[in-house]
Specification:
ribosome biogenesis, alpha+beta, Znf_C2H2_sf, Arc Repressor Mutant, subunit A, 14 helices, about 45% helix, nucleus, Hypothetical 12.0 Kda Protein In Nam8-gar1 Intergenic Region, Chain: A, three-stranded antiparallel beta sheet
Length: about 375
Amino acid sequence: MSRSLVQPVGQKRLTNVAVVRLKKRGTRFEIACYKNKVLSWRSGVEKDLDEVLQSHTVYTNVSKGILAKTKDLNAAFDSDDQTKICLEILDKGELQVAGKERESQLSSQFRDIATIVMQKTYNPETRRPYTISLIESLMHEIHFAVDPHRGSKKQALEVIHELQKHFPIKRSPMRLRLIVPEEEFSSLSEKLTAWNATIVSKDQTGSQISIICELDPGFYRDCEGLMMKLHGRYEVLALSVHAEGDTVIDQYDDHEDEPSHSLNESSDFDLSKKKETTDSDLLKKELADPVLKLSNEMQKQSISTGKGTVASEGKQNKCNTCNAFVGDSKQYRDHFKSEWHKHNLKRKTRQLPPLTEDECAADVEMDDHKADLKDYSF
């Protein structure tokens, strides 16, 4: 009587492995690899093939342990060298991953694409970049799907073009230094005008003219060819340019204070007349000393009376999204974090007019009621 070991017919072999699959000439071929080693091999980090392959064997089904036939290998690869075929499958094949692992890779690449979009774009109204969370929500609204077989940068450029069709978003210009001979400057100036480039500064040293300009990145290749044609040189100073910081003092002091109209306006006439003379003298000093002007403007924003009225009350900042004045610089920054501004921003993306603060609160409350009713609908 035979004492051979009887194994279950449906036993699964080589299940805890990374499978790389390649279909060629109608036949599927697979190889068994160690987890997290395939990507290291393809990126050039791992050099030892034995650290990548679990065995130098070609299968038609790794999970069932079915080996590939020699005649199929010769028909598909014109060779039966297992190691050589494993190398080709490893380089050209498709890596099979689990569902959760694939979901993690897609979410990571989605985040990378959103980060690239954030770095390369800005809000044309504020000239500042959008937040990463807002970019991700806009990408969800246009139903963007990540392609794991394509580069993140290329997909990010396609996302920017798609977002520009629906939302107020612009590509951040790149800053370049262009140096050309003096006789070629007219040709360069014509091209920059045609490209809607912004010249930041211009300097001439000897027979050469150096300019610093901000240019749309889409014209970079054309600019590179033009500089070669004009026998000039170029230097990339910044890949994307946008406004820095939260607030600027001059931004809130563009307009002079208008005289307030009150019932005792006639009694205040003399005081206002004296104020005009002192303001004119102060203005002359500020023009001579810009540091004095800056300090005076900061004092105007910080001084407040004991009665609760702010001295710079007339210099309120307007939010274009909500179409409302929202106070000084601190209140202006806090406004962008409020539910009122966020709700109006969502309405703006849908081409809807802004709401007042009370209307916004009522609209949000109505949405909450609709959500509660939806839970009880049958």
